[in-house]
Specification:
This protein is 34% helix and 24% strand. The protein is α/β, with parallel strands linked by helices. The chain has a 6-stranded mixed sheet with strand order 7-8-9-3-10-11, sandwiched between helices. Strands 1, 2, 4, 5 and 6 form a 5-stranded antiparallel sheet that branches. The chain is globular, with a radius of gyration of 19 Å.
Length: 279
């Protein structure tokens, strides 16, 4: 079966008057209709990778790759019209913080309806019914009331559910979730993950889940990519993450507190230049 997404030797760099920063360096992976986690420290290239896949790296950024293929379509050769048919419709992205992703002067229902109609020929009435159904699907109580609220009138957890509803209303083939639970408490995190798991399974889509939380990714995803300095350190099955072989992954795991063992002081990750390939 042909993979849903193929990335080969992805390079993303940003050039200023003083220097060039290589944000992603030689990244390669393939994925099917599965849950793929990408983890690593801040600045490791996770979000830049997601934006490069969606064609959202703007100037002064530069994206190069040997292959960037989505469902048989070459994204490197895509023109603006092709991107408009893919972005939002076939590949959707849930951003990290709904406060900066939702339009503050539009009611949330109107924003979901707008996303729906931008990628279909539905009437406004049909789109409204779809939007209400999707709000219920992400377990928002009293969807009719929430439909008429502004973003500042909802909580952080509800805002993330609204964002997920907006991205899933077009039934995309691939959903990219960029740290969708990072600002939420543990109970709301688990609720959101359960909702995403159910919806991804029901719609048979692929999911790229970006996070700092290794334990969260291990419990939720099928496979995990560990990134450092814009490069892939290793790829492993999520169930085997605790047995990862690379010293960087082992270091990240050992830096996380655990209620199962007593530790006076958490170890500090000791990074090594040898982990990065010279380019």
């Amino acid at each position: 079966m042909e993979p849903l997404l193929t990335v080969e030797n992805l390079q993303v760099s940003f050039t200023s008057h003083h220097r060039t920063v290589d944000a992603v360096r030689g990244l390669s992976f393939t994925m099917g209709r599965e849950k793929l986690g990408i983890v690593g420290e801040s600045g490791s290239g996770k979000s830049v990778t997601a934006r490069a896949i969606l064609g959202l790296v703007g100037s002064p950024g530069k994206v190069e790759a040997e292959k960037l293929v989505f469902d048989g379509q070459d994204l490197l050769a895509a023109d603006p019209a092709t991107w408009r048919s893919i972005r939002g419709r076939r590949i959707a992205m849930v951003m990290q913080d709904p406060k900066f992703s939702l339009n503050p002067v539009m009611k949330v229902g109107a924003q979901i309806v707008e996303a729906c109609r931008a990628h279909s020929k539905m009437s406004r009435t049909q789109a409204r019914e779809e939007a209400l159904a999707m709000l219920r699907a992400v377990q928002i109580r009293n969807a009719e009331r929430v439909f008429h609220l502004y973003p500042h009138q909802v909580s952080g957890g509800m805002g993330q559910r609204i964002m997920i509803a907006m991205m899933l209303i077009t039934s995309p083939d691939l959903l990219i979730a960029d740290e969708p639970t990072s600002a939420l408490d543990v109970t709301v995190q688990l609720q959101l993950l359960a909702i995403m798991d159910d919806l991804v399974s029901q719609q048979g889509m692929g999911l790229i889940f970006i996070s700092h939380d290794l334990h969260l990714v291990a419990s939720f995803c099928d496979r995990v990519i560990i990134m450092y300095g814009g490069q892939v350190m290793e790829v492993c099955d999520a169930a085997e993450l605790q047995n990862a072989g690379h010293p960087y992954t082992q270091g990240l795991l050992s830096c996380m507190p655990s209620i199962d063992r007593k530790q006076q002081v958490l170890p500090v990750l000791q990074r090594q230049e040898a982990w990065l390939n010279k380019m």
